[in-house]
Amino acid sequence: MGEDRRSACLLAVAVALQAAAVLGGGERQRGGGAAILDPRGLEKFVDELPDMPRLRGYGVAEGGALVAGNLTIGMYDTSWKFHRDLPATRVFAYGASRETATVPGPTIEAMRGVPTHVTWVNHLPARHFLPWDATLTTAVAPGARGVPTVVHLHGGVQHSSSDGHSLAWFTAGLAATGPRFSPPPYAYPNRQPPGNLWYHDHAMGLTRVNILAGLMGAYRVASPGEEGPLNLPSGAALDRNLVLFDRNFRADGALFMNRTGNNPDVHPQWQPEYFGAVVVVNGKAWPYLRVRRRRYRFRILNASNARFFRLRLSAGLRFVHVGSDSVYLPRPVATDAFLVAPSEIADVVVDFAEAAAGAAVLSDDAPAPYPGDPGDKAETVAVMKFLIEDAAAEEPPDTSAVPAALMPHYPRPDAREAATTRRITMYEYAKNGTDEPTHLYLNARSYMDPVTETPREGTSELWEVINLTDDNHPLHVHLALFAVLEQRSLRRVVEFRDCMVRRNDARACGIDRHLAGGRRHAVPRQERGWKNVFKVRPGAVTRMLVRFKPLSSADASPEESRFPFDVTTGPGYVYHCHILDHEDNEMMRPMKIVR
């Protein structure tokens, strides 16, 4: 074991011991002895889909000019009704006040080019109400009490001091702060293309627990001058965010999370994936929405810890994709069904005038975990229901449209512009003699190991992501956008994996030989634009062009190839698997941008 790795391990042990001493194992859940809820006892489609509160992320000066917005958003220990027949559930929630806090949190509406400043305030209690694992490298400070949190604006292009670095956490009243803490407010320049983002907790080792408790919300960047001519469905009633996630409950309404790990002698509480039997949309279990026979726009975010959704609609309806993650597509793509991984966003239009019935059910049939074992057939489960009504006589006709071209002016990905090629290898380690995982690494390094990825600002890189595990991992890169060029399966993958575990050297293990003749897998058409998350296929190599410069028009000037802040300063950025249980157990690496 090298000295850097030895130091990192000693630090991890010290952090774990401090965590156990300071925070304990989490408060006993209210009604901790209550039975786990059988979801079959909850009637579906009885709660109407809520539209979360909207907060304007900009100001309007005299004369109508837009100016920077200033928001204060708290994290509160409160309760939330997930279903008509379920008692109120204790949650952690974002809101402008405790009384207005919601799960998910308020939707922040920003304007392109107009900064939004947010002061995130931690009002959480001394101890977490959900169980967590002190043997993971966890956000905690010696001698302090309180639940650590930090907010990451996923898809945002911001200085790393406002990026929600996992070690920049803080507790209530700033009684304790992490080693990379940055004082408030967080500054979001919004100097990026219009599109969909989301914000969520990102505290080291606690992300899966804090998001499970409710700390997530949607964020939009609008550009009326660019988006208006598209004539897509617009307005609060016709343009809706759908935030999907899964949860388990106890019969008394309390959130349920396991207290015993799959390897309890290694990690007493951690399990490799969390799956819930209840599907929640905008904070309601299996809700319904009344719609007219016309076009609607839905910005669908998968905010689950680990569940993939493969979504389809009944009644002969289809989806028309207009955006993927935070960027519009060059042109629309129609699908009958599509797969969305944890943290991915699908921006779609649905025309209910095409429905063959008076109701349509949005359903999911993705295996959990994904992709599952070969030959497995997943159960089809309901997500939500649309009740389709004819338009009233006095209503104006639907004049919205989906144009043939959306945002074609963004540069097309070209591998020839790559300044360098990096190989990123995904490993899962198991306890000897079992197939039960103990931890997951990128490039055989823990998160606490020194930085090895140092991209140069203003360049693009070719990343070859080698997935040696049996899981599909949604890879997220902070600050950057990327376009996936190719996926190809490895041949004799077990042989290659065994060599890589020993040597961690793809060239020495003959990667070219193992790729030769490997099956190519097409990138779904709706995912061929610029993205910030992609589903990395198991037993395969995914080639992606990663862009470490702003996304602007193809004829941008050299000055526009740099970010509007100094990316070389601050705590730096990260890349990681967005299955939260993997991310919390070291499947994340630091990244330092240089010039």
Keywords:
595 residues, mainly beta, six-stranded mixed sheet, 6 helices, globular, disordered N terminus, membrane, Plastocyanin-like domain-containing protein, copper, endoplasmic reticulum, LPR1/LPR2
Description:
With 595 residues, this protein is mainly β. The protein contains six helices and 32 strands. It has helices at 3-22, 207-213, 224-227, 493-503, 511-515, 580-583; strands at 54-56, 58-60, 66-80, 89-95, 105-111, 116-122, 151-154, 186-188, 195-201, 216-222, 239-247, 278-281, 284-285, 288-292, 295-302, 309-313, 319-324, 327-335, 337-340, 345-351, 359-364, 381-389, 418-430, 437-442, 459-467, 473-477, 481-489, 520-521, 533-536, 540-548, 573-577, 588-591. The chain has a seven-stranded mixed sheet, with no helix packed on it. It has a six-stranded mixed sheet with strand order 24-23-25-30-27-28, with no helix packed on it. It is globular, with a radius of gyration of 23 Å. The protein starts with a helix and ends with a strand. One of its GO terms (biological process) is cellular response to phosphate starvation. Its cofactor is Cu cation. This is Plastocyanin-like domain-containing protein. Multicopper oxidase that may play a role in the maintenance of inorganic phosphate homeostasis.
